[in-house]
Amino acid sequence: MLVLGLETSCDETGVALYDSERGLLADALFSQIDLHRIYGGVVPELASRDHVKRMLPLLRQVLDESGCRAGDIDGIAYTAGPGLVGALLVGASCAQALALAWGIPALGVHHMEGHLLAPMLEERPPQFPFVALLVSGGHTQLVQVDGIGRYQLLGESLDDAAGEAFDKTAKLLGLGYPGGPEIARLAQDGRPGRFVFPRPMTDRPGLAFSFSGLKTFALNTWQHCQAGGDDGEQSRRDIALAFQQAVVETLIIKCRRALKQTGLKRLVIAGGVSANQALRSALEQMLGELDGQVFYARPRFCTDNGAMIAYAGCQRLLAGQQDGPAIQVHARWPMESLPAL
Ligand SMILES: Nc1ncnc2c1ncn2[C@@H]1O[C@H](COP(=O)(O)OP(=O)(O)OP(=O)(O)O)[C@@H](O)[C@H]1O
Ligand SMILES: [Mg+2]
Question: Which subcellular locations apply to this protein (predicted)?
Fold first, then answer.
């Protein structure tokens, strides 16, 4: 089955073609980062308008790259939520219009299920069951995954998501958007031990997260540096390193707990923050000690992309799921409410 995947939940337009037999055939992405950079974050209306502009040229691009014709496509998967409603509606409308014109089924896919299954596109895909750590711009969740659509939420952030904490901390340090890669870059030259940030909510049992205090801690530390006239590049690097170490260690502690609680030894990390090298290395080490395995997608498929939506949609379309003709999207959408395959 050849499936077209459309992703428009936030500030990336992603279009991909995935074939159940041949794998990923083509994948194109347009990132709106330059459009939103001057505002320091995503402006929803600008995002929606830009998705409208990019969608059809990207579709032509994946058809050209794959050598497929529109008539070869058997189904269309699009991100139906969670995300920005205006942006989601662009992908949903395109998908439904094309499905009607081509006489094929369309299916709305859950964006976080897309992230969660992105490591399945790699050469060494994880087997079910596993624990998934979803760490993105909008989510920080630990989920027990027993199969596609068989998700049990183990814990999540009570406030800021991990990626959001990276972005906000970068902004207060005067760094660019998105902040995660900027913090990671600066942290490489940070001096360990100059600052020590708290590891939020690790001193009590449970799998909930809270990252909003870390950004306040970073702000206070930075203001203290500024007041002492020590506001040069090295202080930024030292703060970036201390912040990143705190996020990584907090995630490691909670992942270890989740693995112990579930008795599982496979961990999948997904979402934009899973591209973070320090996090990957720390998890590799931890899973090595536990005689387990960690799985993640190539960096390009950690952040938003069409390939993960095409893959997730293909599994569900193969199982016979499809939408009615109504164009429906969900700003919020609990992953546990998805049907199991
Ligand atoms: N190397 C990195 N280290 C840390 N954070 C990173 C890195 N690369 C990207 N990020 C962060 O990942 C986030 C973007 O990831 P993603 O595209 O998955 O999130 P989103 O789509 O905005 O949110 P959601 O998927 O929850 O709706 C941003 O917060 C960004 O700062
Ligand atoms: Mg995302």
Answer: Cytoplasm
CA distances from 81 to 89, 158, 335 (A): 10, 20, 10
Say if ligand 1 is within 6 A of residue 195 CB: no
Q: Taking the complete model, does pTM exceed 0.70, yes or no? A: yes
**Distance in angstroms (rounded) separating the CA atoms of residues 230 and 329:** 49
- The CATH number corresponding to 2-117+301-337 among 3.40.50.620, 3.40.50.300, 3.30.420.40, 3.10.180.10 equals 3.30.420.40
| 27-86 residue pLDDT tens | 999 999 999 988 888 999 999 999 999 999 999 999 999 999 999 999 999 999 999 999
Work out the number of other CB atoms within 10 angstroms of the CB of residue 266. Answer: 18
Whose C-alpha lies nearest to ligand 1, atom 7? 180
Residue nearest to ligand 1 atom 22, measured at CA = 137
Residues, beta carbon < 5 Å, ion ligand 2: 136, 304
Is the distance from the beta carbon of residue 179 to the nearest atom of ligand 1 less than 6 Å? Answer: yes
In single-letter form, the type of residue at position 209 comes to F
